[in-house]
TrEMBL record:
SUPFAM superfamilies: PRTase-like
Coiled-coil annotated residue ranges, if any: none
EC nos: 2.4.2.9
InterPro entries noted in UniProt: PRTase-like, PRTase_dom, PyrR_bifunctional
Record's keyword terms, sorted: Glycosyltransferase, Transferase
Keyword Glycosyltransferase tagged: yes
Native species: Algoriphagus sediminis
Pfam families per record: Pribosyltran
Phosphoribosyltransferase domain mapped to chain residues: 7-158
Encoding gene, per UniProt annotation: pyrR
Record keyword Nucleotidyltransferase present: no
Enzyme class at the top of the EC tree: transferase
GO molecular function, one term: uracil phosphoribosyltransferase activity
Protein name per the record: Bifunctional pyr operon transcriptional regulator/uracil phosphoribosyltransferase PyrR
């Protein structure tokens, strides 16, 4: 399998710090702001951001995990049933500024579904999107991130692979690979 490195661990760390400083600038003391990691891969990235924010600002930011599996527009069209992941939100988002966090923005379907799913926890004042990788030429929905680490041009035949040390990989890294032909 051919793969091309997009970001290495050092570059991911720099982007993580940049995100934290941008969030601190835009959200003051985080009193009215919450962060939600989109399942299944957003929570790993979210936890890194929350930890780094606390390290830099000394502020504990309200955060949780949101699963939008049953809100997806393609949920019933699959040949196999999707498995839901844990939703872990122990606060209301009514009137709050919500920052949705995910590793890769691809078609925009997960973000659209997440917006439907989060309404169960209240109506937010504002919603922002933070992603590590923006695959900018592949959208099905007109969704753009407010914060992005890197923008990449990819084909539908390619896949963005995110590797986290926390998941057993040697180092944090992001790769572009060709999808395996079946």
């Amino acid at each position: 399998m051919q793969k091309r490195l997009v970001l290495d661990q050092e570059e991911i760390d720099i982007i993580l710090k940049r995100f934290c400083h941008q969030l601190i600038e835009n959200h003051d003391d985080f009193e009215n702001t919450v962060l939600l990691g989109l399942q299944p891969r957003g929570p790993i990235f979210l936890d890194k951001i929350v930890e780094k924010l606390q390290e830099i600002s000394g502020t504990k930011v309200a955060s949780g995990y949101l699963d939008a599996t049953f809100h997806r527009d393609d949920f019933r069209r699959r040949d196999f049933p999707l498995k839901a992941n844990e939703t872990k939100i122990n606060f209301l988002i009514e009137g709050k500024k919500v920052i949705l966090v995910d590793d890769v923005l691809y078609k925009g379907r997960s973000v659209r579904a997440a917006m439907d799913a989060m309404i169960a926890f209240g109506r937010p004042q504002k919603v922002e999107l933070l992603v590590l990788v923006d695959r900018k030429l592949t959208r099905d929905y007109p969704i753009m991130p407010d914060y992005f680490g890197v923008r990449v041009n990819t084909l539908d035949t390619q896949y963005v692979m995110v590797e986290w040390e926390d998941k057993g990989f040697e180092k944090d890294a992001i790769w572009i690979t060709e999808k395996v032909a079946e």
